[in-house]
Design a protein that fits this description.
Two copies of one chain form a homodimer. By secondary structure, chain A is mostly helical. Helices cover 69% and strands 2% of the residues of chain A. Chain A contains four helices and two strands, in the order H-E-E-H-H-H. Chain A has helices spanning 18-47, 70-98, 103-136, 151-184, and strands at residues 51-52, 63-64. A two-stranded antiparallel sheet of chain A has the order 1-2. In chain A, helix 1 packs antiparallel against helix 4 and helix 3 (103-136) runs antiparallel to helix 4 (151-184). The first copy, chain A, is elongated and about 60 Å long. The two termini of chain A are 23 Å apart. Chains A and B meet through strand 2, helix 3 and helix 4 of A and strand 2, helix 3 and helix 4 of B. Chains A, B: Its main location: membrane. Chains A, B: It is found in: Cell membrane. Chains A, B: It holds the Pfam family CASP_dom. Chains A, B: The chain crosses the membrane at residues 24-46, 72-95, 107-134, 161-183.
Chain lengths: 185, 185
Amino acid sequence: MVSQTETGGTSKISFPTAGNNRGMLILGIILRIAAIVSTIASAVYMTMSDEQLQLFTQVSIFSVEYEDFSTLRYFVVINSIVSAYFAFSIPLAMIHIARSTAKQSRAVLIIMDMVTLGVLTSAASAATAIMFLAHNGNSSANWNAICNQYTGFCNKASASLIGSFVAIVILMFLISMSTVALARM
Amino acid sequence: MVSQTETGGTSKISFPTAGNNRGMLILGIILRIAAIVSTIASAVYMTMSDEQLQLFTQVSIFSVEYEDFSTLRYFVVINSIVSAYFAFSIPLAMIHIARSTAKQSRAVLIIMDMVTLGVLTSAASAATAIMFLAHNGNSSANWNAICNQYTGFCNKASASLIGSFVAIVILMFLISMSTVALARM
């Protein structure tokens, strides 16, 4: 890790905002690591959400798991890919600590983060729509609230959404931070 | 409209990339207008998707409209707000034609576009998840494919998603364009 003590006001001519930028860049890398953890947690927790019911009634469904819903499968796949992307983006973000004037690679990172934001948001909100339906059902479409029966599945699957939304907030913050840094250069 | 003939190579010292930038900025404004049309079309077409069935069977549901699904209601509201945002963002984008060195307001525009991208993607993909379910149903949850009965509703509601996805692609392109322009300054 780069020492924070180097970034004082002594080298103001060559790096006008180096001190401020370096702190922000290190914060950015910490946030990327947090986003890796969030998205992996989302993917893993969703895959652990299967539930089997031992009912003595005439209900014909007895087990439910995330793989039954293509939207939740999409959620798991996208969270896995996004966590890999965050891991891959850390070296690129580290370049900016060493070379604080690398405008082009900053722009590339903003664009890649933006695409990731779009993809992750699509997965998270599609899964949210399905879990909302599982909780509330829909009377017009005759879709029952399956969470009345599959409480365990619903709780785990709903909780796994949190990791994705944390990563979305982190991404929005990272993009804003990089954009402001780019505008100041 | 600003004349394109002013932006030749004659004033290269004061505006190094003015000609190139001005063309891109005008393209950006045209794309914003296209995005207004797309999102309004999405919102209006979704609200026109209600369908009543005259069935002589024992099926207990006879009418369905977008208002029965909170996700589709969210979709209409967000598309309306986003179209208003695009209209509001055009004056801000026009500033950059007059003052091509306005870095701060470019950064603000990128951040606002990014937040809009997140919100619009969430609405579009949640609505897509619901329409996917309406088309395909889900056997594990005992949710029937209502599109077998409500063909008209499903076709209209699914078609209205297109406008949102067009606006999402436009937003991604606008953010990339602004970021590259900012990196070149």
